[in-house]
Design goal:
The chain has one helix spanning 56-83; strands spanning 2-5, 8-11, 20-23, 26-28, 36-38, 42-44. The longest helix has 28 residues, at 56-83. The protein contains 1 helix and 6 strands, in the order E-E-E-E-E-E-H. The protein has one domain. It starts with a strand and ends with a helix. Keywords: Membrane, Transmembrane, Transmembrane helix. The chain crosses the membrane at residues 52-72.
Amino acid sequence: MVRVLAFEFSWTIPATLINYTEYVIRISDLIDPTVFDDSDLFTITGETEGGIPGYDLLILSGLLGVVSLAIIKKKRKKLSIYES
């Protein structure tokens, strides 16, 4: 879909378009296709899979901390049974 509003263009990027770092947009005249202009190179990247960027490590650290505490608690419980 291309919509023209006061020299602005908006369009939906097809989902089949791959992530790439050297895309160019070419604008040309309908009557004389030899009249055209190319944009500067630009990058298209897909959407992230949710979450907050940079917090993956924090979440992983928290998860490891909880699992470690559960293991320590379980081992202490076993030791207290053997000492009794």
